[in-house]
Amino acid sequence: MVQDASAVSPVAHLEFKVAALLLLMLLLVGGSVLYVMYARGVFEPTQQLVLVSDDSEGVKVGMDLTFSGFPIGRVRRIELDPEGDARIVVDVPQKDAHWLRTSSVFTLVRGVLGNTGIRAYSGVLSDAPLPDGAVRKVLVGDASAEIPHLVSAAHDLVQNLTSLTGPDSSLSASLVNLQASTEKLKGQHGALGALFGNDKDARKLVDALDRTNALLARVDGIAAHADAQVFGTDGAVSQSRAAIAQLDEALADARATLKKVDAVLQETQGIASNVRVATTDLGALRAEVEVSLRKVEHLVDEVNRKWPFARDTELKLP
Amino acid sequence: MTPTTSRQSALSELGGSALRWLAGWWRIVHLGAQILALAVSPSTYRLADRSALLHQIYLSTAPNLMWFTALSALLSLVLIRIVLVTAFSYGLSQYALEMVVRVLVLELIPLTAALFVAFRCTIPYAAEIGAMGTQPELGALKLQGTDLLHHEVLPRALAGMCAMLMLASVSCVLTLVLAYLSAYGFTRWGFEGYTHTVGQIFEPAVSIIFLLKIVLMSVIVSLIPLASVLNEPGRTRGRASVEMRGLVRMFLAILLIEAASLVGNYY
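Output (structure tokens, whole complex):
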């Protein structure tokens, strides 16, 4: 006999339970659909921005337009314009549109791994807001385009390195010279051999050093002798000390002599004052002598006039 | 027997097998169309038949819902954690959430739900229908034409579809919530970014393919096992062989749907 399902084990409130299950399913499906629509920005008013680029490689529908790392727009469509440029139509939600200004710059950056990003930069946020439907040129920065230059530079670098480290390179020659120098350093005369380049000159320097050592030994003996001469018991220093003592005595004598001189000077000062008085008297004597001289002169003039002993004083006319 | 005749007989046998295989598919499609036609006809939902239908829907959905939800939550948590930690260690954490949603919600959860419903509901239902074929009363039922379809097959098929849709929707929503919690924790500040990521994944084409995939899988796992058993009730090779063929056909159809969805999403 065919078993009826409802007859096997009756379920209480079956209709309610099934209705609840179906309602839950409808709620989940409906809620998910609404959430996805919200996530897609269906309920959000947007404005349009058209970015024009000569190459839209890497740009996909649905990718983000970012500003400071935050997604503020989404690529809705990519199309070719009559000039052959790519027109990237971006939907920007109006709540985020204030980040875009008329002076904003848009870049399309391709990473080394092929990841592409569209970025907006607004330097002056006080500029006028970007109008709806604005068309802007997008600057393309391609990191992968730098790879050929990088490879070329690396190739040059490797070539330079190869030529630098080759067997005929100057670096190799320098290393050979360095090795030769090291061998000389390890030789009999060590660094001297490396400095002079041959053993003969190095030996000369060693001889000179030996002689200098001998000379220094002799200088050392002379210095010891001089020391004895200068600082010994009968040396110059002790004799000088005696001489200084004698000089001291002489100075004491000189001091006594000076005191005597001082007394003499005092006497001389008294004599000088006497001489001053005498000089005053001499002034009067002088005046008298001058008067007498004038008289003698006058007398001589008179004698000359009356008895001329003079030489011929006649004036002759031409 | 000469080699030529043996080759001809092998070829004719191969051609016959292919024809039978195609004819089997055709009968399954035909039966499936009949069941679907009955499902959309208002007479199916008369009060007399409604009780059996509701009972089947309840038995298929409610007991499995808790189990499947718990299992899928566990599986999702493990996979989400693995993906997040691995992506973080490679410095690719910005792609982790997208990968989690794509792998789990778009691909794995619907497939797992379909297989779960097939093994827990529709294949046992097909076995029940097949078992009816061995009973003497089936002859009377068969004579009644669509009554077998109407009273026994249709409630089970609709119950399987409902169960598949229910399990898939609950698990997908739960996985979305778990992914958010695993990535951001119990904070609301990641909601904007998460919503943005989800919005980027669920493009219109991807969403339509996702919905179509779930609906088609629910139809496939509900109809093919039942239709396979109904198609070959009198075959002498045994019931197990018939159920196995139905299983293979169901897997093949699921594989085709999965491949088509992958092609639609990623090519």
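Chain B touches chain A at residues 51-52, 54-59, 61-62, 65, 132, 135, 137-138, 141, 151-152, 155, 162, 165-166, 169-170, 172-173, 195-196, 198-200, 202-204, 207 (CB under 8 Å).
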